[in-house]
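As a representative case, we now present a protein record of this kind.
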Amino acid sequence: MRNKRPDDYKIQSKQLAISPFIYSAPSISSISIRFIILLSLQVLMLLITGSYKAFIVVLCAVMGAAAAAAINCILHKKEYYQIMNMIIQGMLIGLLIPENYPPVPVFFIVFMTLFFSRFLIFKSINSWLNMTVFAVLIAWVIGRNYFPGFTVTSDIISMRNTSVYLLQNGLYPVYNFDSIITSFLNSTVFALFKVSIPEGFVSMLWDSGHAIPAFRFTLLTIISSIIIFSDNTFSGIIPSIFLISYTLLVRLFSPMFFGGFFNQGDIILALSSSGVLFCAVFVMQWFGTVPVTIAGKIISGLCLGFSAFLIIGCGTSSIGMMYTILINNIITLFIRTVEEQKNLSNIAKVVAKHNLKNSAGAQQ
């Protein structure tokens, strides 16, 4: 082996000096790009499935957000990731509004909500109130008749397998490929556990055919969640605690309120309806609307699960998750206040300890 020359060491030192630090989590701009790509896949599925009305609603919502972002660029010099976040909010709002909603009101609802929230109420993209949720609630108040109601009754909820009943009675579409995939899964994967799934569950995961686009493509949402939470894009504490607490409450107690039995709630129906998974992945942890500490996130997740159970019940609600997240935004205000007071208290203790140490050293 030859001896290294001094020039070799210079080259190595220069190479090490270029990037001395690495990111422990993706930047806000990279998160925004990732969200736009994943949400665009949801929009693309609308075109693939021929849901042109839903596509137009989403397009109008994005145009409303783009108009608000354009004025934002003209009046204020903003970072480009903030503009992207407004576009993301437009996509989310459009996906959470029914496909039969008139497109023109969607444009103005999105534009006015994002415009006034950015210039009159909140000066930053990070606000305690999730404006996506707020805009969808405004759309619901203005056009409540366009939002579908609960598809389950008290008699259906008391049954053991509510989702199977809904599938067998045609409330969810069953596609031609369903029987082939279901037979394959039952004979290979589920046979190992001596269980089987009925026909229709694969179709429900692929496209439930719901009037609200965000509720339709559950499998695509699950894949998106793996991408988002796999590299610390967002903390998985809040959605995990939320899903565990909500599904546990549904499983144990939901049928009991309607004459059913303990521990017979339908978890599949709860997760595949009401936009539960979509909101847990894309909406629930919007910037500035969640606690900072681990304890605060755990409390927030539990509050979300309990609120969702009281508002949504076993599922099939078109607007319940919006109220759930809105209530949690208000709760988060109090949690963040406690966190800030505790942080200030810790800083005061550190400063006092430092001053005491300096004064003792000066006396010596």
In short: The chain has 16 helices and no strands.
